[in-house]
Design goal:
- 17% of the residues lie in helices and 38% in strands.
- The protein is built from 2 helices and 7 strands, in the order ββββαβββα.
- The longest helix has 13 residues.
- The protein is globular.
Length: 133
């Protein structure tokens, strides 16, 4: 069986030495239900990755961000689909968060990221962030 391939972007949003982490709600796939992740979403036809990350964060969090640099591309095989996730280091001058799709969020220092229950595809990003400090 060929698994569905999904390509998404994720924002590593930094503000005042903290990073934004958001928690997914219930999901039909138990293995990502209620897990923490970096916010983002699917790339639409004709969009660049940078345009997608700006749009998705505006839709999901009502926040304006600036993508500053490519960070890490993760290829992860979940039981039901193959995920390619392009992550970006982003900043926001106005860090107010208005959740439209997630059930919780936390602004955490780098040293506290490992305490969360992350979605599997986001773990390599957490590990790289921790490794570079």
């Amino acid at each position: 069986m060929n698994k569905k391939k999904v390509t998404v972007v994720a924002a590593i949003i930094k503000h005042n030495d903290k990073i934004l982490c958001v928690q997914r709600g219930d999901n039909k796939f138990e293995y990502i239900s209620k897990k923490y992740e970096f916010p983002g979403g699917k790339i639409e036809v004709g969009e660049t990755r940078e345009q997608t990350v700006v749009r998705e964060i505006q839709e999901e969090l009502k926040m304006d961000i600036t993508p500053n640099e490519d960070f890490l591309t993760v290829e992860h095989e979940y039981p039901d689909f193959l995920l390619t996730m392009h992550s970006f280091i982003c900043t926001s001058d106005h860090p107010e968060v208005h959740l439209t799709e997630h059930i919780d969020y936390k602004w955490l220092r780098l040293s506290d990221l490992a305490k969360l229950d992350w979605a599997a595809a986001d773990i390599p990003i957490v590990k790289k962030l921790l490794s570079i400090g």
